[in-house]
Amino acid sequence: MAGMFTTKGRYALRVMADLASHEGWVSLGDIAKRQGISRKYLEQVISLMHKSGYVLSQRGKGGGYKLARDAEGYTLGEILRAAEGTLAPVACLDCSNAQVCPRADECPTKPVWLDLGKVTSAYLDSKTLADIASIEDDGLAALPADES
Question: Is residue 36 pLDDT above 90, yes or no?
């Protein structure tokens, strides 16, 4: 499985964590350098965050972007929804496109996908931007060791 989330969603989390880790106005160019993301693509991502009211922008010298509220005030789920549109694990559960799967009533896998969507949403809504911003500050050393 290639993954549930697009680069847009993953980059949105990284951009927001970067902003949470820096005081004041932060330039898009600085974020692009630190995160290794092209500025052009970053403009698309930050635009989604701005439209959602998650970041403030200021033009001109000394301007840039900053969080609209404290990092504890954002859930990872809401950031990903703003970037991705949905957290549905499969396209047939994505109600944002107004298309209903013709097999929805008889699909034996639908309950699995519904449950996965609920678990995924609950987990991402239980984590805040502050949770990953501290990981961003501490680097990979803050991640738990693989206990397998």
Answer: yes
Task: Provide the residue range defining the domain that includes 15.
Answer: 7-137
Question: To which H or E segment does residue 56 belong?
Answer: strand 55-58
Rg of the Cα trace of the chain? 17
CATH code for position 67: 1.10.10.10
Q: Has residue 105 been placed in a domain?
A: yes
> How many folded domains does the chain comprise?
1
Q: Which of 50, 58, 62 is nearest to 15 (CA)?
A: 50
Q: Which residue has the higher pLDDT, 102 or 111?
A: 111
| Whole-angstrom distance, CA of residue 14 vs CA of residue 103 | 37
Nearest to 49 by CA among 83, 17, 98: 83
